Amino acid sequence: MSTEAELHPRFELLGEVHGDRSGTAPTELIVNIGGRQQITRQITLLFAVGRSVHGASGERLQLRLDVGLQFNLPRRYTFDHSTHPRQVARRL
Fold first, then answer.
1. Residues of the chain with pLDDT under 70
2. What does R_g of the chain's alpha carbons equal in angstroms?
3. For the whole model, what pTM was predicted?
């Protein structure tokens, strides 16, 4: 389950809760919080931090840190005042 909230036209706050299970081990429940910052029209910085809140105590994730860049193809997506891209229909 995830959600997002636009705090500024170029910044979104993101939250996520997800479960992961392998074999007969107890389900590991992971909580992440992060953000998406539009740097340019084609580059977005993505970042998140999280940890496991449920699962086998000896195997729980203590800290998870994700950082990345998203590159959007020129003229493939357009950005208006919101941070949500809109795909542009084009003839080939």
1. 75-92
2. 17
3. 0.66
